[in-house]
């Protein structure tokens, strides 16, 4: 896998926010949310165990900061027997097509409970552990699959210059209902304009989207 070089220097305010303030907020925020949501994590786990069985969690390799791979955690929303066949293969040559839209293959079956978990982003809650470990941030471009990022053009790779997030600018501007080109455009805007106020705006918009289930699949 081709590694993405780290930039030698960034503008001082952005560098300070990304390196210190954002990480501090991530640690405090993920720790607090894990404590507050712990009873619900147990509840969602028990419900999943009763109606869908084991395993409770779904783990997959994703591209992190500077294209470094890490294992993302989610509540399982597919049939257990479909997990091993859930990988995707793409044959793009130059870059990921702008009009590409990610969809779950018809051969995979998302459970009824899984659809609810996905609609209201319940399946994403375990990623707070990824945030606490420093692999993700609360806000940032969504972590992409390795099978897709290996086809990135040099421009598309720029979205990997910040930590992936549980929510992001693309998620509050369309979620799963936008094309790959639109997602990249939103993510590149975020990379360039990353700030506390933008992160706060995204978090507030995310709360509304999660409650309404808008744009989920």
Describe the structure.
The chain is mostly helical and 217 residues long. It has one domain. 42% of the residues lie in helices and 9% in strands. The chain is built from six helices and four strands. The chain has helices at 12-52, 112-119, 127-133, 146-149, 180-193, 196-212, and strands at 57-63, 69-75, 137-139, 165-167. The protein has a two-stranded antiparallel sheet. α1 packs antiparallel against α3 (127-133). The two termini are 30 Å apart.
Cα gyration radius (Å): 17 Å
> What oligomeric state do the depicted chains represent?
single chain
Give the low-pLDDT segments. none
Q: Would you tell me the overall average pLDDT?
A: 87
Largest sheet: 2 strands, antiparallel
Provide a count of the helices: 6
Any idea what the shape is? globular
Query: How far is the first residue's CA from the last residue's CA?
Result: 30 Å
Number of strands: 4
Spatial arrangement of strands, main beta sheet: 1-2
Briefly note the structural class of the backbone.
mainly alpha
Proportion of beta-strand residues: 5-15%
Please give the domain count. Answer: 1
Report the helical percentage: 40-55%
Topology pattern, helix = H, strand = E? HEEHHEHEHH
């Amino acid at each position: 896998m081709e590694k993405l070089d780290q930039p030698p220097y960034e503008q001082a305010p952005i560098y300070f926010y990304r390196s210190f303030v954002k990480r501090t907020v991530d640690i405090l925020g993920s720790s607090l949310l894990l404590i507050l949501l712990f009873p619900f994590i147990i509840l969602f786990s028990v419900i999943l165990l009763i109606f869908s069985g084991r395993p409770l969690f779904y783990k997959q390799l994703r591209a992190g900061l500077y294209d470094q791979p890490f294992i993302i955690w989610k509540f399982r929303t597919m049939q257990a027997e479909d997990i091993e066949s859930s990988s995707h293969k793409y044959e793009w040559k130059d870059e990921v097509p702008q009009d590409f839209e990610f969809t779950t293959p018809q051969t995979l079956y998302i459970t009824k409970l899984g659809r609810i978990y996905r609609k209201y982003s319940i399946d994403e809650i375990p990623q707070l552990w990824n945030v606490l470990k420093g692999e993700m941030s609360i806000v940032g471009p969504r972590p992409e699959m390795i099978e897709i990022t290996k086809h990135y053009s040099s421009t598309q790779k720029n979205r990997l210059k910040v930590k992936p997030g549980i929510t992001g600018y693309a998620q509050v501007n369309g979620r799963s209902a936008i094309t790959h080109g639109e997602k990249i455009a939103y993510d590149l805007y975020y990379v360039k304009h990353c700030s506390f106020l933008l992160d706060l705006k995204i978090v507030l918009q995310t709360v509304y989207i999660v409650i309404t289930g808008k744009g989920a699949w």
